[in-house]
Design goal:
The structure is a homodimer of 436-residue chains. Chain A is built from 10 helices and 23 strands. In chain A, α3 packs across α4. The longest helix of chain A has 14 residues.
Chain lengths: 436, 436
């Protein structure tokens, strides 16, 4: 039996009773499992063989009836009969757009944004959603050449809406978030979110992320943020500054962390926002949307480690790279007098006049510093640009963007040491890596 | 006036009175500052111009009198008159061995282990310290070729003592810790520690780290650990498994974090140990000390990122590298179908049969997984070795050590996927990156 989008009451063979909405099955769904969205917002997967009886309680509101999602699902423009504000949803692929393929056991990015949103029909009560499906890319395949397209599509949607939610694979979401921050200037919210488990799984984290993301797109925030589970429970999402966020767990729901700067706010699915730090506010009047996607993609992120070979920098220079971001050790070190003879100093002294050499720290938390130790001063004198407390990944994206505007190394250095989109604190905030 | 190691009572011009021990001045000390160790263990720097009067209260106990540190300072063997157990201290350099150079404002690694320990004379009450000064190296200059020397010196000291404290620069301390774990097998404790601020500074974190380190060297622990401040306060140190620790802040006192595994225990300066997780215990009988320092140093740690150029792997292969550890995205991804045409798959398919290609995750927390996504399965089929929840830095050290024993790729793969020194959990522990 198919109960798609039906309000159902289920009696299990073990005596339990459950009420909720039966979620739509897809070509890839396991037909022996019925997925039900419970009233508390959780989805459960019920083995059909354990079910005694399913009783229909009517079709759920919001699908095929209400202003937003329902009509979108049928490809019609919003009727606008309900007075809910327009929000853009940009699909780019990722796990959030994926289904389990029960043939191979793997996961495929095959859902449109409309199909994903059909799992959370209740959002139509507060948002009139305009969908754009730009890509169907996995996170690992996003490359700098994709960022301008994402930025332009976001800008187009922003001009028709109050804010935009970008659905994206999580692994490289923070790189794209930084790119959006530098390339797009607007005081409307742009919210990046996704999922650690595909949207058709009972255990998916997609729905809270999307619901909170849509609420954030309608909030008073005026800067791009990453919106992701605050914790393993399905309570709230953290809103984190786009240039300050990093994926810090392969698979946990609360995978993203705000680094070197506080979480800006917490959002729940009902739209209640708890402000935790200062953030830029949505402008009162009509918001401008400015796009500047000039980019130099030939920038590498290079990890320094004991024994690391400095000739790698020459290889990049010979390949025409315009810049490298080093993940140095501690305050921004490279080997200078190692016993294996591989000093990075002569290579850097030669190359830092030809290409931008930017220093970040592999400790992730804290800031690089060009003065504490003699070796640091010498690196600085050689032309190495210390990026302060900018994250390595953000520094790479920023350097690509800065080099897209000027390749004069003095100007590049000044830009990399100037805060543009919240990526660099002039002073160190006392935020330690949190304790367990 | 020189008050080195004198018990003093100080009257300040503003009326304050302070009691403590005047710490020794050095050639590099600022002569206008008197550093006094207060009874609560903190050091304060007092400007001599603010001091009204200093009264001597006698030479402090422990310097030049007691069994341990005093005699060591004079280069004599321990008298053994006091019944305190022998502990080894191995100096290798780093900030813990550094003084502020008041001429340049920088910091130089110029102190011997004896000189450092002279700041904490009270440790002679519980430990008869045997010093070895092996190197005077800064953290960034430690390279794989140094690890066998550190391991051999540690082993020699271990055979004469109950446990060894290795003083080391912090930036690469976790790489050396992993090397010690793989190269040295013993059930006596080996404790790595250091300092974020040089030992001659009033604000140094060195003394708590050293005191707790010495206590740990005499504890029931039977495995190598990193010992470092639990928090910004000077209360306790965390004892963290050597293969599971990572420097996670450029400058905070609590710079090190135990990743993917719990902190093993907390130690205070009085020797009180709070056990927090299971750890290997010191053997009851005489402990064996086994050294195996065979190492293949030509292994690189390569960070994957959007736009990353896969030809870098060819460069390493052509240079004769025997292995690379990739810091992939998420569960262990590389670009496979990016729009810039730079797929890593063909390069990996070609090279993974010639050199060891090991996959870790740049999320740091969590574990790589070869099955969830089609692209991961294909990487695994191409011969990529997924290192589970092993840290990238630990995986690099382990791969160097494994390749030092066999270069047969099948055997290498099996070793990299087998837990040897606590670096790999067979199953995922539910430890998330902690919240702020």
């Amino acid at each position: 039996m198919v109960y798609d989008n039906q309000q159902v009451e289920i009696r299990m063979k073990d005596g339990r009773r459950l009420e909720g909405v039966a979620l739509p099955s897809t070509d890839f769904s396991d037909k022996s499992i019925l997925i039900v969205k419970l009233k508390n917002g959780y989805n459960v997967g019920l083995s059909r063989k354990d079910i005694l009886r399913v009783e229909r309680r009517g079709r759920v509101e919001g699908i095929g009836r209400m202003g937003g999602v329902g009509n979108m699902l049928k490809g019609k423009p919003s009727t606008g009969t309900r007075d809910v504000p327009p929000v853009g949803v940009l699909g780019t692929g990722g796990t959030v757009a994926s289904r389990v393929d029960y043939v191979t056991g793997g996961v495929r990015a095959s859902m449109t944004a409309e199909e994903i949103l059909a799992f959370v029909p209740e959002v139509a009560e507060f948002a009139d959603i305009k969908f754009v499906n730009l890509f169907s890319k996995l996170s690992e395949d996003m490359c700098p050449q994709d960022w301008p397209e994402i930025v332009r599509a976001t800008a187009r949607l922003l001009r028709q809406t109050e804010g935009v939610v970008v659905l994206h694979g999580t692994d490289t979401l923070h790189y794209t978030a930084a790119a959006l921050a530098f390339m797009l200037t607007t005081s409307k919210p742009v919210v990046l979110t996704g999922a650690q488990r595909s949207s058709d799984r009972p255990s998916t984290d997609a729905f809270l992320n999307i619901q909170c993301g849509l609420r954030t797109a309608l909030s008073d925030l005026g800067e791009p943020v990453v919106c992701f589970h605050s914790s393993t429970s399905d309570g709230t999402c953290d809103l984190m500054r786009a240039t300050r966020t990093r994926k810090m767990h392969t698979s946990a729901r609360a995978a993203f962390r705000s680094i070197n700067t506080p979480v800006l706010a917490r959002m729940d699915r009902g739209g209640k926002l708890e402000k935790l730090a200062d953030y830029l506010l949505r402008s009162k009047g009509p918001a401008k949307v400015k796009v500047d996607v000039r980019l130099e993609p030939e920038v590498a992120l290079v990890k320094v480690h004991p024994g690391a070979d400095p000739r790698i920098l020459k290889w990049y220079a010979q390949r025409g790279y315009k810049g490298v971001v080093l993940e140095g050790t501690g305050l921004g070190h490279v080997p200078v007098s190692p016993s294996n003879g591989r000093s990075w100093m002569p290579v850097i002294q030669k190359l830092a006049g030809e290409m931008a050499v930017v220093m970040t720290s592999q400790t992730i938390y804290g800031r690089t510093h060009p003065f504490v130790y003699t070796n640091l001063r010498e690196l600085s004198q050689a032309g190495v640009i210390f990026a302060g407390d900018t994250l390595p990944e953000t520094a790479m994206v920023k350097l690509m963007w800065v080099l897209g505007h000027t390749q004069k190394l003095e100007k590049v250095a000044r830009q990399m040491q100037t805060n543009i989109k919240g990526e660099l604190n002039p002073r160190t905030l006392e935020i330690s890596p949190p304790s367990q």
